[in-house]
Amino acid sequence: DAAAGKDKAQACAACHGLDGLSQMPNAPHIAGQPEIYLKAQLEAFRSGARVNEMMSVVAKGLTDEDIDDLVAWYSAIEVTAKPPE
Amino acid sequence: DAAAGKDKAQACAACHGLDGLSQMPNAPHIAGQPEIYLKAQLEAFRSGARVNEMMSVVAKGLTDEDIDDLVAWYSAIEVTAKPPE
Fold it and tell me: Which of residues 44-63 of B touch A (CB under 8 A)?
């Protein structure tokens, strides 16, 4: 549920932005990322299959519902990309 | 060097798009990603600190210069994000 995800994303916004555009040089944009990819990364951080100082801690506390809501929110964001000329 | 990176990105485009917008549900957008983040991920896939069926193979063959060029290209892409109303 994207609306619930938007509320939960308040906790992600410091690094990833509420709109999914990175606020930190070592944090990725997550705006509009494909659902399957985003879900797989949050689950990997939670299980330890993927390790990151910050995300390993953050993901530990996420429920399956949290993950689905956050993925719904961030994947619903429309992104455009304009390569350099 | 972004121009050299654009040439090298031909090899990435099948999954990530030349413009960095994902072409596959399990591949992330990499358009406009912060340089530090992108470089860290390519190095992690190359070293094995991060594992992915596809990227672990792709990254094995990358030189430091390849990584810098690819990062220069993809991070130079301008992205916008439009959250749902």
Answer: 49-51
Rounded to whole angstroms, the Cα distance separating B15 from B54 reads 10
CB A31 within 8 A of CB A74: yes
Q: ipTM value of the model? A: 0.93
Q: Is residue A15 part of a domain?
A: yes
Question: What is d(CA B27, CA B25) in angstroms, rounded to the nearest whole number?
Answer: 6
CATH number for position A37: 1.10.760.10
Chain A residue closest in CA terms to B75? A83
What pLDDT does A72 receive?
A: 98
B2-48 per-position pLDDT tens digit = 999 999 999 999 999 999 999 999 999 999 999 999 999 999 999 99
In chain B, the number of structural domains is 1
- Residue B16 is part of which domain span? 2-75
